[in-house]
């Protein structure tokens, strides 16, 4: 485990916008879930198909929650311009007449992995820890101050790299993965970059006092935990020690 | 892992009250967290002091949430008699002029284990998975139909045995544990029994249709997950594979 430096530093005096941004990036370098061992295993081809199924099935819960949290956020915004700006996050995931959207692209992945689509959508096989983390994220965005609700999306600053690593790694290392199945990630590469830039600009402009800046940091750390917990739960259940909690998805190769 | 039979059965026709009770007990026999390997390790003396500290520190989050969830429940009850009946659950944990209460008894345990009391109360070292699960429980009791809010307390049907096993096992197996530190569990032995009987009587009387009875079962399964997730997270972080998530409590023997 990396020694945590930026993540534990408290902001006591207001930082410049640039220094705040630098601080947020330093936290990402310490805490983003690309550092989790499960992602190394996933991207390097070390998992079997059942383990990849478990990942995709659980990650669906997170994907499915994104438009709910973003619509909840829009529902709290007084500023029409900001609502308009945020709206495409909902349609990016839910789709439009012209675009199937991110959730459907995720289901194309789970289809391709051989998972029953209704089972995936039901979340019945998802790990309880995944569900609790995802619900905590939705609630956070609904209930916390708007600055923190916006700032909790800042993990997208670090997303493009993980999508690139995942696409390249999974295409190269798994014979059951092809370009079509990876279309979710391919599309997110551009979406996540512009979303993250917008949220970062918002935070730079609205987090002025030390207290506001610490709130932003706390929101980012909260969201890092939401992401990390999901991988911890996958690792625990499906890698090591491989203790699948009662009622959760059991891959074919783990059936007695 | 035990084959799940009762836990996956759907109630399609109304059961008699006795048959419903039997069904709830059957779920307990399959899913209660006394079955989790972490509890076997804890009670049998297989953990070191740092691991027991991690357990007590994380379990504090759950203890601290109980009076909040019970007060939230009372705040939703129209029936004065039922509110009066439920109130002692708040004072059992928060204490009164005459009784220090369960939360203070838990802090006596964490004190005795050498943990800083303010650190424990801050929850700063608790596992994110613990916090998400505990918050999910509070929210469930606040937001779900009253029948399910009440039924989610039914895990107490199975609590006396785990308290007895824990008290006997920990006193016998750890030289850093004494009667004083175990006072929380000793006191809960009687409290949990009468609380569980009351909730069971309530559920027997109010869950009449198959749909209501399934709601009760779902509430019990939800709560089983809240408890199981906490032990999964402890096992993952502090036993096997021992991956402590960034920012969580690190026992002395795990420091680099």
Task: Give the structure's gist in a few sentences.
Two copies of one chain form a homodimer. The first copy, chain A, has helices spanning 17-31, 37-44, 49-74, 80-94, 102-112, 117-122, 128-143, 146-151, 159-173, 183-206, 210-238.
What does this structure look like?
The first copy, chain A, is built from 11 helices and no strands. Chain A is an all-alpha fold and 256 residues long. Chain A has one domain (26-236): Heme oxygenase-like (Heme Oxygenase, Chain A, Up-down Bundle), CATH 1.20.910. Chain A is globular, with a radius of gyration of 18 Å. The A-B interface holds A 1-2, 4, 7-8, 30-31, 37, 128-129, 131-133, 135-136, 139, 221, 224-226, 228-229, 232-233, 235-237, 240-241, 243-247 and B 1-2, 4, 7-8, 30-31, 37, 128-129, 131-133, 135-136, 139, 221, 224-226, 228-229, 232-233, 235-237, 240-241, 243-247.
Judging from the principal axes of the Cα atoms, what is the shape of chain A?
Answer: globular
Kindly, what is the distance between the CA atoms of the first and last residues of chain A, rounded to a whole number of angstroms?
Answer: 35 Å
- Structural class of chain A comes to mainly alpha
CATH superfamily of chain A: Heme oxygenase-like
CATH architecture of chain A: Up-down Bundle
Oligomer: homodimer
**What do the pLDDT scores of chain A average to?**
95
Helix count, DSSP H or I runs of 4 or more residues of chain A: 11
Quote the CATH topology of chain A.
Heme Oxygenase, Chain A
How many beta strands in the DSSP annotation of chain A? 0
